Amino acid sequence: MKVVHPISRAWITTGGTGAQNYDEFADDAEITAIIAANPRSALAVEMPHKAPGSLGKTFLAALPDAAARLAEERADGSYLPAEQVVVLYRITAPGEPAAYGLWAMVDTDQISTSADEPGLVIRNEDVFIGKVRERVALAETLQTLLSPVLLLQTGRGDDLHAALESASAAAGAPAATDLDQTGRTHAIWVIPAGPLQDELTALAGGGDLVVADGNHRSLAAQTGGLPRFLAVVTTPASVAIQPYNRLISELTVRDLPAALTAAGAQVEELPRPAAIPAKGTVEVYAGGRSYAVVLPGRAPVRSTTWTTPWSSGSCSATCSASTRATSGSPTSAATTRPSGCAARSTPAAASWRC
Q1: 21, 40, 137, 146: which could form a disulfide with 335 (CB 3.0–4.6 Å)?
Q2: How many other CB atoms are there within 10 angstroms of residue 338's CB atom?
Q3: Same domain, yes or no: 227 and 97
Q4: Is residue 340 within 8 Å of residue 328, measured between CB atoms?
Q5: Rounded to two decimals, what is the model's pTM?
Q6: Rounded to whole angstroms, how far apart are CA atoms 149 and 338?
Q7: pLDDT in tens, 313-341
Q8: Which of these, 119, 115, 86, 206, lies nearest to 156 by C-alpha position?
């Protein structure tokens, strides 16, 4: 059964439209500043109410502005149309292995949210329904999907990685490149109908697809009644977990070690400040004391870490774990918006006409 398909009508960036992911900012004013510096930025369409010309409007009220901006950019050549294509995606940086992904469409009816629900697309996080409604409204207004769901191919990831690497090496000059805020270069190649496209889509759909980023967008596809959603399918070798921060407010400092122990975790106080630990271990800093925590019944986690400054009375935690490369930067091509973690700015690869 085929679950990964070509994009029926894609809009391919010609470069210069990439932008940092909209949910990576501590202050919305940063989004406005990025759009002001580069009005062609995909953020002007993705977050229309934060563009300088739309400030003061709600997200819904600014949707006509988003439609006007996208239409203008298509007209001025910022995006070029392509039919029945997939898009090969590569992220590179000095001193790092290359990361790969494939822009394509995936069947919405493959989304599964529990172990007893059939489907190859495994969604694993709760979402904010207000954000889902915004994604649905944006897609309905634009009749275009701007941002992909980042999917990790867990069944044939090594085969897919090798095929994407080989295809990019043989593909010649990319259709477009973009440089993100971390110094990573994002490149895309358009793959038309033919044997290579068939091979890549078969490998991309060759096993369970875990949602690495885009839980809201996947639910928006379901809520909006879309038969397929835009995705970047990446490989385990293309992602790594890096430090990130998290705030935990549900527990007080004095309750934390006992609560973790009661839940079955192994908790050991450390004679040093919390740091990035070995795989499978979490380190926590709470109330001036540090702990190493091994979670119950869990296989070693891929580079996951928690470093957490806890304020007195409640737990303000800093966790560590963010994805690199494809997991961190796919942007949709008709509008480049990254999605993942660390390397989240990109050239964009393809968007889909609903």
Answers
A1: 146
A2: 35
A3: yes
A4: yes
A5: 0.76
A6: 10
A7: 222 232 232 222 333 333 333 322 222 22
A8: 206
